[in-house]
Amino acid sequence: MKKVLVTGGAGFIGSHTVVELHEAGYTPVIVDNFCNSHPDVLDGIATILGHSPIHHNIDCTDEQAMRGVFAKEGPFVGVIHFAAFKAVGASVNDPLSYYRNNVHATEILLRIMSELDCTNLVFSSSCTVYGQPKQLPVTEQTAFQHANSPYGYTKQVCERIIQDVVAAPSSATSAVLLRYFNPIGAHPSGAIGELPIGVPENLIPYITQTAAGKRKEIVIFGDDYETSDGTCVRDYIHVVDLAKAHVAALHWLTGKSNVCDSFNLGTGEGNTVKEVIDTFVEATGTQVPHRIGDRRPGDVEKIWASATKAQEELGWKTTLSLKTALIDAWNWQQKLEEQ
Ligand code: UD1
Questions:
Q1: I want to staple 311 with a disulfide (CB 3.0 to 4.6 A). Which of 12, 36, 317, 320 is the partner?
Q2: Is pLDDT above 90 for 297?
Q3: What pLDDT, on the 0 to 100 scale, is given for residue 284?
């Protein structure tokens, strides 16, 4: 049995990755304390898998409890580390929670992995490490800019910690740093998707909740940027495509020792906020009331990926369109409304 430890496996990207790991013949073992997810996600995963996934309700900063999971479930052929906070604004208000949950948990995980000769780590990083890049598209060689938020800084720091651990003379650890652009969409089955707690911070759940009538309107954060229609540009990637990249990363790590490399995970194309809303309306036939508001502090103007390296080295590329992602997100929102 090829077991993979998936921290944060009940989260948005984690849950979709658990499904893809299962499809690829792995046995995922989820560690998640539901601090930013919901236990119902496990039922959704079970609907797709045909059985309940293995799950431990544990905080990744609890070193003893984490050691217990390795003792009970190990050995693991790899660890995929998603568990982290991800709200840019919240990180500004409460930086210490971000350093504890994102950085300290990663350090604990690396220590346990080193001690137990568990050598393959896939780390959930973000395009936020690039800040506002000077050149587009962003390649993996693009220099990091000053992190705009504690959240962004935790991703830069964790990448550096992992690189240092791999480079240590006695180390056997290998790692892949996956820099996600903007993950959106939901599983085509409608059994799992993004489940924001409270008012959504991210664009797509805000669009689908507004379309469903749960929110009055969506505010577009600024239309005076240097872009085609004045609104910000992002590289939106379907979460199922993104999940499959984690399986590709595990395959890439197999048989390699003491390597660390980073990969951008995006489509290679950018869309403005207005284009996303227009595509949603066109694809679903559902209106999204919106108005232009002020710029959101900390937003970068435009960013999209060069996805060439992931294609050449991981043998992975995106296959699902923005339109498909928006239809799947809408399907998921409608399932939520029925509950
Ligand atoms: C950012 C990070 C991303 C990180 C994510 C975590 C960058 C470039 N991206 O995503 O790596 O994983 O935070 O949450 O740093 N928008 C509106 N109205 C809304 C909501 C959003 O206009 O109500 C706009 C934003 O201004 C932005 C776009 O929609 O231009 C996407 O925003 P969002 O979904 O929050 O993601 P990012 O901020 O790009």
A1: 317
A2: no
A3: 98
